[in-house]
Automatic annotation (TrEMBL), chain A:
<feature type="signal peptide">
    <location>
        <begin position="1"/>
        <end position="27"/>
    </location>
</feature>
<protein>
    <recommendedName>
        <fullName>DUF5666 domain-containing protein</fullName>
    </recommendedName>
</protein>
<keyword id="KW-0732">Signal</keyword>
From TrEMBL, chain B:
<dbReference type="InterPro" id="IPR051829">
    <property type="entry name" value="Multiheme_Cytochr_ET"/>
</dbReference>
<keyword id="KW-0732">Signal</keyword>
<dbReference type="InterPro" id="IPR024673">
    <property type="entry name" value="Octahem_Cyt_c"/>
</dbReference>
<dbReference type="Pfam" id="PF11783">
    <property type="entry name" value="Cytochrome_cB"/>
</dbReference>
<dbReference type="InterPro" id="IPR036280">
    <property type="entry name" value="Multihaem_cyt_sf"/>
</dbReference>
<feature type="signal peptide">
    <location>
        <begin position="1"/>
        <end position="22"/>
    </location>
</feature>
<protein>
    <submittedName>
        <fullName>Cytochrome C</fullName>
    </submittedName>
</protein>
């Protein structure tokens, strides 16, 4: 009995730890990253959505970001933002997509 | 050609232009389609003298005579071209667009310079004049909504000179018109080292009441012959000699409220104080310590917030500016009869000072951007400016801070404007003590007695 209780406590502690400190993003949570654009996919001048693949500077993982705001889409369309640009990005996971809430070039004059 | 024929031709052109404008199109499309776009000479067909006139504006010269700032020579011109202050620390002269030394880590170089936003081709650069300069004006970067920014990149020509590219395609030229918000923001949103860094505002329907009404930058900054009206920002010195004000009769006038008590405030309180309650952008920078970025180049250490994420500070401002090596900001007082309480974005920057003279030194970013060596940047700038003993100056340079008050003139709100109790309460938004009010005045100014009866009546009516 004691052993079973100990195991249950350990499992509970482990679960709590993962819940508190886990890096897996849950829906509604805003995630920040800085990374370099490796690819932009946008379907023409009238596109209302686009995806940009960023290589996270910290983890070197590729993260696909869905962009829906008009200002950033316009910057993709006229190439003010292009592949190779470093981006400061905030996104939320919504229905399995990483939806951009902020998408800014880090560079300026 | 007879007088009658000439008059008919002029009338015909005017009619065609009016018809095109009415249809929302810029006239002259057929001509551009037929002959292609050849730069300013194409624009000059309908706008003769525009290119030459543009060379005499702040957008081209990055400088002008400045009459409201202390401690400078009234006969000289000042601006991004030559100023030394801690938001940028470099300027067009010391930090001219060039290829920086290769990174010792990656072996890669890149182009960098303060004048990358200059609407010329860099061969005809800031303040240049003459036929070549007129031909180099990039009209479309401000006037086209279909500009391909892949073209607007620096490159080296066959002589090894650094040239700034332009999109001079017919496609871009066919999309000309009054500058949109985007046209202005191409340069103005990324000034000072990144998006929203310098001015700390974004002009969108979510952040500005004027943008929400569909207005664009040039509705207020309405240029005539490319002379651009500006406000009286203590840190924005260069100007075209024309100014914009909320109280212009064509905008809000001198009695903008229905309520006489609110209008009475306008005598001592700037419109921005109640209607621009937030600011943002960089609030501190350190030019003496640069951080390595993931591409292994370096950037000045910068602390920043988004638009609307910080609050302004308030001071009396009479339109004149105190200018010392450690402070650039508003002059004014409660008693001078000219000042208004005005909000400012506060910014502090650390940079090197001349040990002998105490003057703020400027920096060429090329070397520090490559390897983080900031004193090498000071040395290069000191040499460019012809200072005596540049090696000694750079070696002995002393780090120090400068505080700057930036004008806070955008992010206008009507619905979230300050109301009575925001200021007229103890520990309210305005620090009346610091603003020069006596204890007796403060007691009166921070009591609900001022507004109780009136607001109680209004509350009744509202509900």
């Amino acid at each position: 009995m004691k052993k079973a209780v100990s195991v249950m406590v350990l499992v509970a502690v482990a679960a709590l730890t993962i819940f508190c400190f886990g890096s897996v993003a849950s829906a509604g949570e805003e995630i920040k990253m800085v990374g370099v654009i490796t690819k932009i996919d946008i379907a023409g001048k009238d596109a209302k959505t686009a995806t940009a693949t960023l290589k996270d500077n910290k983890t070197e993982q590729l993260v696909v970001i869905t962009v829906e705001d008009d200002l950033t889409l316009d910057k993709f369309k006229d190439h003010r933002i292009v592949e190779g640009d470093e981006i400061r990005c905030k996104y939320e996971v919504i229905d399995g997509k990483n939806v951009s809430k902020l998408f800014r070039k880090t560079a300026g004059c | 050609m007879s007088k009658k024929t000439t008059a008919a031709a002029v009338l015909g052109l005017a009619l065609a232009a009016t018809t095109a404008w009415a249809a929302g199109m810029h006239p002259g499309k057929e001509s551009i389609e037929k002959s292609g776009y050849k730069g300013p000479e194409t624009c000059e067909e309908c706008h003769p003298g525009s290119a030459k006139g543009f060379l005499d504006t702040v957008h081209w010269k990055h400088a002008s005579k400045v009459t409201n700032v202390e401690g400078i020579n009234a006969k000289e011109e000042y601006g991004m071209k030559n100023r030394i202050y801690v938001m940028c620390n470099g300027n067009d002269i010391v930090n001219n667009l060039k290829e920086i030394p290769k990174s010792p880590v990656t072996g890669k170089s890149k182009f960098s310079g303060c004048n990358t936003c200059h609407p010329g081709n860099h061969l005809s650069d800031v303040g240049s004049t003459g036929a070549a300069a007129e031909a180099a004006v990039d009209c479309l970067v401000c006037h086209s909504t279909d500009y391909d920014f892949r073209q607007r990149k620096p490159f080296k020509n066959e002589k090894g000179e650094v040239v700034m590219g332009q999109d001079r395609s017919t496609k871009a030229a066919l999309a000309i018109g009054k500058p949109t918000v985007k046209n202005c923001m191409v340069c103005h949103e990324a000034a000072g080292g990144g998006v929203i860094v310098k001015r700390g505002f974004s002009f969108t329907k979510d952040t500005d009441a004027h943008a929400a009404k569909g207005m664009v930058c040039v509705d207020c900054h309405k240029a005539k012959n490319h002379k651009m009206p500006t406000g009286h920002d203590p840190n924005n010195w260069a100007n075209d000699g024309v100014f914009v004000s909320c109280s212009d009769t064509s905008c809000h006038g001198v009695k903008p409220h229905k309520d006489a008590d609110l209008n009475r405030h306008c005598a001592k309180i700037a419109c921005q104080t109640c209607h621009i309650t937030r600011t943002g952008g960089a609030f501190a920078k350190d030019f003496t310590v640069w951080e390595q970025t993931p591409d292994k180049f370096y950037e000045p250490t910068t602390l920043k917030k988004e638009a609307n994420e910080t609050t302004p500070v308030y001071a009396w401002y009479n339109g004149t500016v105190k200018n010392t090596p450690h402070f650039i900001g508003p002059k004014g007082s409660k008693k001078d009869g000219k000042s208004k309480i005005t909000p400012f974005k506060i910014f502090q920057g650390k940079a090197y000072y001349n040990k002998q003279t105490g003057e703020l030194l400027s920096m060429d970013f090329a070397q520090p951007m490559s390897d983080g060596d900031t004193r090498a940047g000071v040395l290069s700038a000191a040499k460019t400016l012809g200072l005596k003993n540049p090696e000694k100056i750079a070696k002995e340079a002393v780090p120090g801070w400068q505080t700057i008050y930036f004008g806070s003139n955008h992010l206008v709100t009507k619905t979230k404007a300050l109301y009575c109790a925001n200021c007229h309460a103890p520990n309210g938004v305005l620090n009346f003590k610091d603003l020069g009010y006596s204890d007796k005045e403060i007691l009166k100014l921070t009591s609900p007695e001022l507004f109780m009866e009136k607001l109680a009546q209004k509350q009744k009516e509202d509900w």
